[in-house]
Amino acid sequence: MILRFESVTKVFRSSLTLKPTHTIGPLTFGIEPGEIFGYLGPNGAGKTTTIKMAVGLLKPSKGRISCFGKDVTCMDVRSRIGFLPEHPYFYQHLTASELLEFYGGLFGLGFEEARRRAVHLLDITGLAKFGKRRISKFSKGMLQRIGFAQALMNDPDLVILDEPLAGLDPVGRKQMRDLILDLKQNGKTVFLSSHILQDIEMICDRVGILWEGKIVKIARVEEILDQSIKGLDICVEGISIESAANLNLGKVRRTHDGIVITCPADTDTDIVIQRLMRQGARIRSILPQRQTLEDYFMAEIGDLRQPMRRDPEESLASSEVSI
Amino acid sequence: MRTAIVAFAKNTYKEGVRDRIFLMVGVFGVIAVISSFIIGPLSLGEQVRITQDVGLAAISILCFAVAVLIGTGIVYREIERRTIYTIVAKPVRGWHFILGKFLGLNAIVGLLVVFMAALLLGVNAVVTRTFEPEILVAVLLTWFELLLLTSLSILMSTICSPILGAILTFLFYFIGHASADLKELATRFGSPMIKAVATIIYYALPNLEYLNVRSKVIHDIPVSLSYIGFAASYALLYTIAFLMVAVIFISRKEYK
Ligand SMILES: Nc1ncnc2c1ncn2[C@@H]1O[C@H](COP(=O)(O)OP(=O)(O)OP(=O)(O)O)[C@@H](O)[C@H]1O
Ligand SMILES: [Mg+2]
Predict the structure, then answer these.
(1) How far is B209 from chain A (nearest CA, A)?
(2) Distance set, CA A249 to CA A38, A229, B11, B64 (Å)
(3) Which DSSP category does A205 fall into?
(4) Which of B26, B98, B146, B213 has the smallest number of CB atoms closer than 10 Å to its CB?
């Protein structure tokens, strides 16, 4: 395991009374070499807090975080990590090239080497034209790109990205996804957080779902997508919606393509087709309906939300209504 | 390690010289030194002294202003604007950061000192028709004082906001220069309570008057080499102590 959290807990305390105000964890999970791990969770779940602990911006209240087999605070661990913070912000008085050269210096790179890498990174992040522009003139998406470039100045083995796709336009998102996939191709490991489920679905190998400071699920993306064939959408024409409904095959609805019957996933398609044809229907298409990560996520989170609705005050309120 | 310190220093220097404060103070410095040349003749027979006095005071005060205005925000702003987030994740230590900031800030202040000192020597040469490098002894000790004051400003910026830091550093400067007078005043007129407080202040805070040999230089009283050595070490000791405390504070910080 490249990055490993062992019962890591962060307790935020009120600065006056020292009473705990919020707790993240305990978190126990690890990131395998060469994978892209997606860290998913709604706002305030604790993604940024976890990442800040992994890069040393926050100290865990309990537990241990190790990286490459050593404590994350070791200097030689840090020189192998690249980090892009959430909403990155950089020195306004520097130009893009100067900024990257500055970070090169922090990694102990000589000036020539730093300059060479800066040129290359500006190029692959699509900022080649803006090397001489001051950071103060950068747009949000450009900041995100220079932030990504900065994270790669040391050619890191592990790249930690907090919402790398935030603030990018669709083209930029595609480019950033490709850059992240390139990292994997080159044998790097990536730990990224995001709200945008489609992006995670497209690039991640594994996901961890975080909810109110706890990891509720860790799985491979295919696993989640596989067990998620929800049904078959059979699109037919030539019969009325009523007669289709009368067959009791599943939910029936009309679309601009014709009538769509949604059957359960375990339906025997041969039998269904025969029955439909006997009614004089023409089959236009049969499509397995897959659950997206988004559906899965909503379902997981939905399950967790259920018990919360049953707090005493609310049930009292609802019983009053029913009386 | 060395490249990291250089990177911090260079960056701090660039930020400083691209700052408006620097330009404003620089222009003000030129005006101050040149005006000493113009005021001089009005004070019958005292022209030389006035020029030197105003010039040396301008160097001390204006460079102190730059040190405080830039220095007290130097770490605070990195935290407030979150530029420090990417730095903490890099293989650098707290002392690299603080030392780099200190060197960068002193490069700015030093540039101003050199520039104004050269100007003063020039103006003085015009007034006296002789070259008087002895003036530089006063400038040298002022420069040591500025090392101490920049390190204090940086320390302030790791623990409080720039405004509070500037007020505290200014108070420190004022008391540091007046502590002997204050103690004298208190022992003569004050109640025992005030006397005690004045004595504590006198011994707790560095006496910045040790670093002020301006009036000696102006009145052509020689300053011994051993005195210069003593005053310089006095300033350096405080400088190192302030920087070390700043390193302790920055290393223990969390970024919430
Ligand atoms: N300094 C702090 N003091 C107290 N509570 C905090 C602090 N920082 C974060 N929290 C709390 O910890 C929780 C997790 O915050 P965090 O920023 O890690 O969430 P996140 O998953 O990154 O959310 P988002 O998707 O909005 O970025 C939140 O409920 C937040 O209120
Ligand atoms: Mg976040």
Answers:
(1) 37
(2) 38, 17, 70, 85
(3) S
(4) B26
User: Model ipTM?
Assistant: 0.87
Q: Given this model, what pLDDT does residue B113 score?
A: 94
Average pLDDT over residues B223-246: 95
What pLDDT is attached to residue A310?
41
Hey, what are A146's tokens? 């220079």
Nearest to B95 by CA among B9, B153, B14, B159: B9
pLDDT higher at A33 or B221: A33
Nearest chain A residue to B18 by CA: give it: A93
A322 pLDDT higher than 60:
no
Q: What's the gap in Å between A208 CA and the centre of ligand 2?
A: 15
Q: Do the beta carbons of residue A289 and residue A232 sit within 8 Å?
A: yes
- At B71-80, the pLDDT tens digits run 999 999 999 9
Provide mean pLDDT across the span B228-254. 95
Question: Can you tell me the distance from the alpha carbon of B72 to that of B75, in angstroms, rounded to the nearest whole number?
Answer: 8
Q: Is the pLDDT of residue A228 over 70?
A: no
- Which residues of chain B from 67 to 106 reach within 8 Å of chain A, CB to CB? 81-83, 85-93
- Residue labelled with tokens 């399950």: A303
DSSP state of B193: H
Three-class DSSP category at A20: strand
Residue A135 has pLDDT above 60, yes or no: yes
DSSP state of B43: S
CB neighbours of B244 closer than 8 A, spacing ≥ 6?
none
- Using an 8 Å Cβ cutoff, are A194 and A40 in contact? yes
Q: List for chain A the helix, strand, coil content (%; round to 5).
A: 40, 30, 30
Q: Measured between CA atoms, how close is A28 to chain B, in angstroms?
A: 22
The torsion of the CA quartet A139, A142, A143, A149, rounded to 10 degrees, works out to -170
- Give A-chain residues touching B1 at CB under 8 angstroms: 108
Whether ligand 1 lies within 6 angstroms of the CB of A10 is answered as no
Confidence of residue B44 (pLDDT cuts 50, 70, 90): low
Coil, helix or strand for B14? helix
- Pick from A194, A184, A125, A128: nearest CA to A153: A125
Return all residues near B157 (Cβ < 8 A) that are at least 6 apart.
B71, B72, B73, B74, B75, B76, B77, B165
Long-range contacts of A242-250 (CB under 8 A, 24+ apart): A243/A279, A244/A276, A244/A279, A244/A281, A247/A275, A247/A276, A247/A279, A249/A275, A249/A276
Distance CA A96, CA A304 (A): 45
Query: Which residues make Cβ contacts (< 8 Å) with residue B137, sequence separation at least 6?
Result: B213, B217, B223, B228
Residue A315: pLDDT band with limits 50, 70, 90: very low
pLDDT tier for residue B104 given thresholds of 50, 70 and 90: very high
3-state secondary structure of B230: helix
